[in-house]
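re the bet — no i am not wrong, look at it urself. input seq straight from the record:
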Amino acid sequence: MAKLKDICKVCKSKNAGPFEVTIDIMLDNKAMYDKVEASGVLNAELFARLYNVDVKDVLFTPYPAAFAFKGTIPRCVSSGDVGDTDVYGAQQHVPMLDVEIPI
């Protein structure tokens, strides 16, 4: 097993408008992308569980041409609203870093 933080080239998050956050996971090469994809670990259900949202609200998209996966989830608090602690959505990728991938 390998943690995602040890095998991905980039793992980042950002706003996808004021009401959603996108988490991007990019791998170095096709071989690693194929291993991660074949594991089936990265999926909408994982994002829903880690971010405590309903799976129907998760948009999960694999991008094989870029060796990447993208998950878009609703924000708990709108960007810039009272109670927002991450106005740019730039720290929301952290729960993904310790996800274990059997490679």
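see?? The mean pLDDT is 97. told u. also The CA atoms of residues 24 and 70 lie 5 Å apart. so pay up
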